[in-house]
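Researcher: Let's continue the batch. This sequence belongs to Acyl-CoA thioester hydrolase, and it's 143 residues. Same format as the previous ones, please.
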Amino acid sequence: MATPDATPDGRFEATVERRVEWHDTDAAGHQHHSAVLRWAEQAEAELLRRHGLARLFGRTPRVRHEVDYRARLWFGECVRTRLRVVRLGRASLEYAFTVHGESGLAAEGRVVVAHVPPGASAGTPWPDDVRSALDGAAGAGRR
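Model: Same format as before. Here are the C-alpha cells for Acyl-CoA thioester hydrolase:
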C-alpha cells in the first residue's frame, strides 16, 4: 500500500507499507541491512510513478546513501517506509527516509541520486519538465 502526499512545507513524499519477508532477513533473523535501502527505493518508485516521472528509472543512479539503524525488524513484522524530497540540485536530488516497525523508528537515512541519461558518462542538468515537477517537491531545500 502506498500513499503519496504533499507535506505541509510543500515537499512531496510517499509512504509504503509492507511486511518483512523471509528474503529481507539475515542469518540472525532480523532485517538484512540492504532491505532498508530496497524499501526506500520502493517508496521512491511509487513517488515517481504518482508524479508522472517513471521515465527517470534507469536515469538516476545512486551517488550517495547513508542509513542509521535504530532497531531490528523481524520476519513478518509490518513496516512503514516514508520517503520525501529534501533537496533539488542542478543534476542531483536528495531524499530523506524513515522506516518504522511495530515498535517505532527502526532506520532513517538519506539517498542522493544524479540525473544521468542513457549514453551519458556523467550527470547532466535535469530537463525543464522534470525540474518543474521536482521544484515543487523540493520546496525550501533547493540548492
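Researcher: Any comment?
Model: The two ends are 32 Å apart (CA to CA).
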